[in-house]
């Protein structure tokens, strides 16, 4: 019988949809797949969550005497310090984007061997619809020349973790996931992918 439960394999019970619902769903799919692919893609994008993916690199001083130090950047509009970060280019691996952004924004040329995934590696920003893939690197600050372009980045400077300057709200939240800075309590929140 059409409306009676049936078994797909021993031990599992599968209920069939009502004939009317089956016809409506089938009609909907038929209409949807007759739409040109370009428009179909646009329709899907309108109703699905879209996230931008970026790479962030936490660059620490490997030879710090005393408190650990991190490299921060001052960028326009200059309302706080930030981290070396940027969006992934098409088909770019997140670790390569971290190396590229470090070079572009600070002048520090990192190789993938020098960069390690942070734990957690992905931080999801639900309100802004973006995901940060976070990496760490350690370089000797005293022997590492910093170079900024003056347009995208105004200044790069090493700061002790226990004496951080005013950072942007997004930077404070991101650092908080790693137990650093004014929002270190965020380390235990659930919006990170471990």
Automatic annotation (TrEMBL):
Recorded GO MF terms: hydrolase activity
Nudix hydrolase domain sequence ranges: 50-181
Source domain of life: Bacteria
Keywords: Hydrolase
SUPFAM superfamilies noted in UniProt: Nudix (SSF55811)
Names of required cofactors: Mg(2+)
Name of the molecule in the record: Nudix hydrolase domain-containing protein
């Amino acid at each position: 019988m059409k409306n009676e439960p049936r078994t797909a394999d021993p031990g599992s019970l599968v209920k069939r949809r009502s004939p009317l619902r089956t016809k409506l769903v089938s009609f909907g799919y038929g209409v949807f797949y007759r739409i040109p692919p370009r428009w179909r893609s646009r329709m899907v994008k309108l109703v699905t969550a879209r996230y931008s993916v970026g790479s962030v690199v936490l660059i620490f001083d490997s030879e710090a005497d005393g408190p650990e130090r991190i490299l921060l950047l001052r960028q326009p509009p200059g309302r706080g310090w930030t981290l070396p970060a940027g969006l992934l280019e098409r088909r770019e691996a997140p670790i390569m984007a971290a190396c590229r952004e470090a070079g572009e924004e600070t002048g520090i040329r990192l190789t993938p061997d020098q960069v390690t995934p942070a734990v957690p590696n992905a931080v999801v920003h639900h309100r802004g619809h973006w995901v940060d893939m976070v990496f760490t690197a350690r370089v000797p600050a005293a022997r590492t020349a910093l170079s900024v372009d003056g347009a995208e980045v105004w200044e790069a400077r090493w700061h002790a973790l226990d004496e951080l300057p005013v950072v942007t709200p997004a930077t404070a939240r991101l650092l908080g996931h790693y137990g650093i800075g004014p929002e270190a309590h965020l380390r235990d929140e659930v919006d990170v992918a471990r």
